[in-house]
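pinging the channel bc i need a second pair of eyes. not urgent but kinda urgent?? the chain im working w is below, pasted from the shared doc
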Amino acid sequence: MVSLIKKDFYLNFIYIAIVIICVPILYILNLNSFFIYFGIIMGFLFNGFYYDKLSGTNKTLASLPIKRTTIVLSRYIFAFGLASFSFAYLWIIDMIAHAHLPYLDMPPMTQFSLISQLLIGFILLAVSFPIYYKFGYIKAIVIQILLLMVGTPAIGFIFAYSLTKIDSAKTAEIVFSILDTVYKNPHIFAGTITILLILASFALSKRIFQKKDLHLS
């Protein structure tokens, strides 16, 4: 497990160094912190699976006595660890930038935005991993873009449309009661959903990877 995590670290070392150098520069250029963090997550996913393909890592792992569950788990541990590190680094740079760069348009991170941004990053990883394991890094990028451009607005439209079609006053009362609870405790609700998504994502990625012919990857 540790050796696999080290492998991911070495493969992503240059990328991590670029992130550390570029984040302050992007703040100087007045780029929104959310888009910086979003870009870091997307870049890591592409970079990790790209180097797996380029270096033939999967073929090597197929010849070693390593459980595929361990391979997937190590990638998840490294990914969420890197996401947490990147988030903490971004938060530190955000505080320094707002203390010394008065021209910044974006407001400083608050407790709400901090937790929200971290959870969104985790959700993005959880949703993306099975896609990358199933389709590879090139097709996965296309699918992610389509999901962001089409899927997100579609879900919002379907939800809003379904609310307008509710005939039962009792059902409407239950729905809006749930929404009110979510509104009052957003991070508890979002945190629970995030944990469930991560567990489901890991189970699905493990299942996909176990059935995959690594010699053809």
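so Residues 111-164 form the longest helix (54 residues). and The two ends are 21 Å apart (CA to CA). — does that match what u expected or am i reading it wrong
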